[in-house]
Amino acid sequence: MSYRGELVRIHLRRSIADSRLALSLFFVLAILQGSYFISAIGPLTMPDTDMNANTPYAIATGQIFNLPHVETDKFGNHTKVQYISGDARLLKRTGRINTLVDTVVSSPLSPSSKQEKQRVIDHEPQSTITVPTSHIANRSNQYFPLVYLPQAAGIRIALWLNSSPYQVWQAGRITNFIVFLTLMGLAIVIIPRAKTMVACIAVFPMTVFIGSSLMADAFFISISACFLALFFRVSIRTTPATTLQVVCLGILSILLFYSKLVYVALAILLLALPHHVLSRKRKVITIGTCAVVALLSYGLWSSKYAGMLAITNIENNVHWMRHNPFTLVKTITWNIIFLPTKVSSDQLLTMQATIILGLAWLYLLQTLPKHQAPAHEQLSSWVSRNRYIILSVVVFLICLYLTFTALCLTWNAMPTFDSTTEIQGFQGRYILPLLPLLVCVAFHPKRPSLRSAGAPSSPDTETQETDRRSEPAHSHKYARKQKSGTFQFLHRKSRK
User: Fold this and answer.
1) Confidence label for 475 from pLDDT (cuts 50, 70 and 90)
2) Burial class (CB in 10 A: 0-12, 13-18, 19+), 131
3) How far from 306 is each of 67, 78, 88, 365, CA to CA, in Å?
């Protein structure tokens, strides 16, 4: 094995060892909850069944690139409507319950969330139907197809096996859950600190239900967690980021763009990386390349296929926004300020999840090493030292403003609004991909090492300094074994 390969193997083994407690917490609680949700709650009990069920079915049956028809809805909007055909037992979505995630999670034992009504489709005769119809909606072309690949894989396998319609949907849930577990576990391993905090966010009942459903939000949450975990791993380096790390950050940024446009704001964090980690030239190349790839691919798909649901006249809203930008900003700001008040009614996060999140964050703050600020510290120095915290707050607010703007455009009649009107359509699941930003308090940029002026180093040896006070570390025996193994390997190399 090469020198680089041996060091990478050692660092990977150390990262997994550091993550044992957090991984155990995550996998045990997530699998227990996910197994219950899959077995006790029907696959069509979720928000937006016309999108979250139909899109993976369209991908699995090769119809996702059916050319849409431009039609005018009852609100006067011109939208692209995609027609797909298939088994009526699946596309009719009999027994579907179009409900909010927090409603299901807050009362998982209620009869409305069970699957008896949805199992009826197994006993119906097979026939073919084309949707949408006058009473069956279809939104299989609202999101970029890539975000539904995990569900589509399970549905495709189930169709090959001639499974019953109910089991076809269940297969899509299972593969989605497997991908969710894999990506969230990877995020826990990658992030060098605050692993337990990430695990707590990942085992929220809302998060696990989404991960074990047909919803694309599972992809949004896990990709966001992986991006932030890798970013914070790179952020505390004392040498340049490796090419592999930069490429992975770029790919994850593109996947965020494919998920929801609002979440691509997370990529702004790359600008905060110190120059010894990512130089200005590498930042421009990375961000520019990602922007070109994402815009070209998404733009080509969107111009030809993408359709969007709106329950108001978009043209009227755009006209109002252009002439009332300050009222728009004031209205969104008002709604953001009063967003925490929705916790008590479970419209943001459930009360239990909010309490767990608060306690986990307080524990993280208590276990962080105390940084002694220099006396008479200048403002510029303070901003530089806390750059990740400051920019994380800014990015969080940008995502909220973009989310509310999109809701204003498609869900609300803006000409009737004033500065204190409540914006309709916001759901707590929209902030789940942003919650890993809370770990920003555990990270501060480090001074460059003497090697930082050279080419990007291979293994990130400086970033693996896991905080012993905040995370479970290696035992002394394990650490001595690793150190001895590394020394023996390097000694053999020098003799050769």
Assistant:
1) very low
2) buried
3) 10, 12, 24, 44
Contact 241, 278 (CB under 8 A): yes
Task: For residues 91 and 112, give the distance between their C-alpha atoms in angstroms, rounded to a whole number.
Answer: 20
pLDDT digits (tens, 9 = 90+) for 247-303: 999 999 999 999 999 999 999 999 999 999 999 999 999 999 999 999 999 999 999
Quote the CA–CA distance of 213 and 177 in Å, as a whole number. Answer: 7
Helix and strand numbers (H, E) in the chain are: 20, 6
**Single-letter amino acid code for the residue at 157:** I
Per DSSP bridges, beta strands 69-72 and 78-81 are antiparallel
> CA-CA distance, 66 to 73, in Å (whole number)?
20
pTM over 0.85: yes
Find all residues with CB under 8 Å of 55, minimum gap 6, and list them: 64, 139, 140, 141, 142, 143, 145, 148, 151, 152, 216
Instruction: Give the integer Cα–Cα distance in Å for 164 and 267.
Output: 42
Q: Are 263 and 396 in contact (CB under 8 A)?
A: no
Quote the CA–CA distance of 280 and 234 in Å, as a whole number: 15
The domain segmentation of the chain, as residue ranges, is 21-370+377-453
By CB atoms closer than 10 A (0-12, 13-18, 19+), residue 279 is middle
Name the burial class of residue 322, with classes exposed (0-12), middle (13-18) and buried (19+) by CB atoms within 10 angstroms of its CB: exposed
Give the confidence band of 11 by pLDDT, cuts at 50, 70, 90.
confident
- Which of helix, strand or coil describes residue 250? helix
- Digit-coded pLDDT (tens) for 362-392: 777 777 766 666 667 788 888 888 899 999 9
Per mean pLDDT, which range of 104-108, 394-398, 454-458 is the poorest?
454-458
The pLDDT mean for the chain works out to 86
Between the two ends of the chain, the Cα-to-Cα distance in Å is 14
Res. 350 pLDDT band, cuts 50 70 90: low
**Is cis: bond before 340, omega within 30 of 0?**
no
Q: Locate 171 and state its tokens.
A: 């297969």
- Per-residue tokens: 458: 């291979």
- Give the closest residue to 64 by CA, choosing from 243, 307, 363: 307
